[in-house]
């Protein structure tokens, strides 16, 4: 009986060590639907990995385009998903807003449901080209 108990305890110990090691893995790579490589870093930021040289985001328009082209967890891109959502009769599209901040830009898409409820989708775009969803709505539609 003690033999089986110690084997079970040892097995659980190894499972815990292995799962802890796996969860601490480095960056995760994926392929977007348009064929571009996307890298999810451990800190939650995103970047397109198949660029020949790093992108330096210098303009609000550039930051907005990076967010629009992110792969969406519901298929297609973030922009395609939000356009489809905005076409719903009860939704008013208040458009994209981009705010310059110290280390890059914050990009926001605002939708108004039933003329009362604001739905904000926000991302941080670093000057280096990395992207990070900032709120639950953006996290929910940004493909991991």
What features would you describe in this structure?
This protein has 144 residues and is α+β, with helices and mostly antiparallel strands. The protein has helices spanning 2-23, 60-68, 78-86, 136-141; strands at residues 28-31, 37-40, 46-48, 91-101, 104-113, 117-126, 131-133. It has one domain (2-141). The longest helix has 22 residues, at 2-23. The radius of gyration is 20 Å and the shape is elongated. The mean pLDDT is 80. The chain has four helices and seven strands. The protein is 32% helix and 31% strand. The chain has a four-stranded antiparallel sheet with strand order 4-5-6-7.
Give a brief rundown of this model.
Keywords: Signal. Residues 1-25 form the signal peptide. The chain is α+β, with helices and mostly antiparallel strands and 144 residues long.
Entry keywords:
single chain, 144 residues, alpha+beta, four-stranded antiparallel sheet, three-stranded antiparallel sheet, 7 strands, signal
Q: Tell me about the biggest sheet?
A: 4 strands, antiparallel
Overall morphology: elongated
Radius of gyration: 20 Å
Contiguous runs where pLDDT drops below 50 for at least 5 residues: none
| Order of adjacent strands in the largest pleated sheet | 4-5-6-7
Structural class: alpha+beta
Number of domains: 1
The H-and-E topology, N to C, reads as: HEEEHHEEEEH
Helix proportion:
25-40%
How many strands?
7
N/C terminus separation: 45 Å
